[in-house]
């Protein structure tokens, strides 16, 4: 049985993954018109997978949902999808090229459920590359950009994931290395805290040498701007998250045109 879902119309742009005024909304809004619906659907699918990881109360049930999605994603190979979201993706032109990176994202989600605690910097980097890094690879495969650009796309997506994990380290402590959790960071001076988190982010190459897909380029620009704001705020470890105003998000995404 398919996981419960909103009706077909609920996945259109803007949807729950791209609410008006959010960074994701502006990233999609300033993509070429022909890509907007597809990109919003892809973000909705990624968001749905992350919800399974973050909000489950029963690991076994969560992994069964991911198993169902693995089967569903393979149906893109011959346009036989059953879920309203994947049917909408299918209608938007998402095809067999998406199966491998989508499956990789699902495998990563399964791994996070089985082992939710990030052990060290290497595990942190790997989780970022395998999750949002593979989402950037998904965009790259669908836009048919040169195959050798996979690595650059994965690195840029991983950087975006790392910035977001650091932004949310207080409410989601298991998703960062133990010495970068809020309690440990509060024991450091602002300078020490900044050096530690900057070192964590320095492990990702966020300067692509080739063009990125339109959505990836905008998401990367927005993550760099968020990184700057977190840095300029002294890497706060309060429960309240660092946010950017909608006007600032709009400006950042618009400048990528």
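-> sequence recovered:
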């Amino acid at each position: 049985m398919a996981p419960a879902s909103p009706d077909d119309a609920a996945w259109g742009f803007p949807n729950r993954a791209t609410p008006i005024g959010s960074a994701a909304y502006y990233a999609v809004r300033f993509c070429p018109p022909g890509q907007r619906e597809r990109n919003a659907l892809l973000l909705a699918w990624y968001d749905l997978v992350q919800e399974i990881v973050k909000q489950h109360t029963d690991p076994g049930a969560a992994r069964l949902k991911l198993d169902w999605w693995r089967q569903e994603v393979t149906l893109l190979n011959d346009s036989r999808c059953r879920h309203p979201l994947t049917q909408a993706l299918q209608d938007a032109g998402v095809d067999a090229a998406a199966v491998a990176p989508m499956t990789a994202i699902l495998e990563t989600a399964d791994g996070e459920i089985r082992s939710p605690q990030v052990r060290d910097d290497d595990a942190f980097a790997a989780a970022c590359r395998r999750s949002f890094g593979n989402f950037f690879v998904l965009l790259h495969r669908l836009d048919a950009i040169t195959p050798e650009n996979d690595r650059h796309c994965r690195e840029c997506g991983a950087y975006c994931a790392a910035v977001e994990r650091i932004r949310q380290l207080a409410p989601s402590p298991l998703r960062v290395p133990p010495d970068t959790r809020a309690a440990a960071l509060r024991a450091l001076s602002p300078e020490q805290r900044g050096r530690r988190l900057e070192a964590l982010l320095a492990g990702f190459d966020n300067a692509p040498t080739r063009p990125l897909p339109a959505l990836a380029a905008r998401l990367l620009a927005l993550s760099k701007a968020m990184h700057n704001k977190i840095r300029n705020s002294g890497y706060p470890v309060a429960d309240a998250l660092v946010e950017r105003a909608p006007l600032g998000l709009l400006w950042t995404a618009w400048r990528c045109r």
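The chain has a mean pLDDT of 93.
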